[in-house]
Amino acid sequence: MLNRNIKEKGIESLLFAAGATAVIALFLLCIFLFREGALLFENYPVSSFLTDTKWLPTATKPQYGLLPLLLGSFVVTVGSILFSVPLGIASAIYISEIADPKIANVLKPVTEILAGIPSVVYGFFGLVILVPIVQKTLSLPTGQTALTGSIMLGIMALPTIISISEDAISSVPRSIKEGSLALGSTEWQTIYKVTVPAALSGISAAVMLGIGRAIGETMTVMMVSGNSAIIPGFPSGLFESVRTMTATIALEMGEVPQGSDHFHALFAIGSVLFITTFIINIIANYIKRRYRFSL
Question: For the chain, which residues make up each domain, given as ranges?
Answer without folding.
Answer: 2-42, 46-294
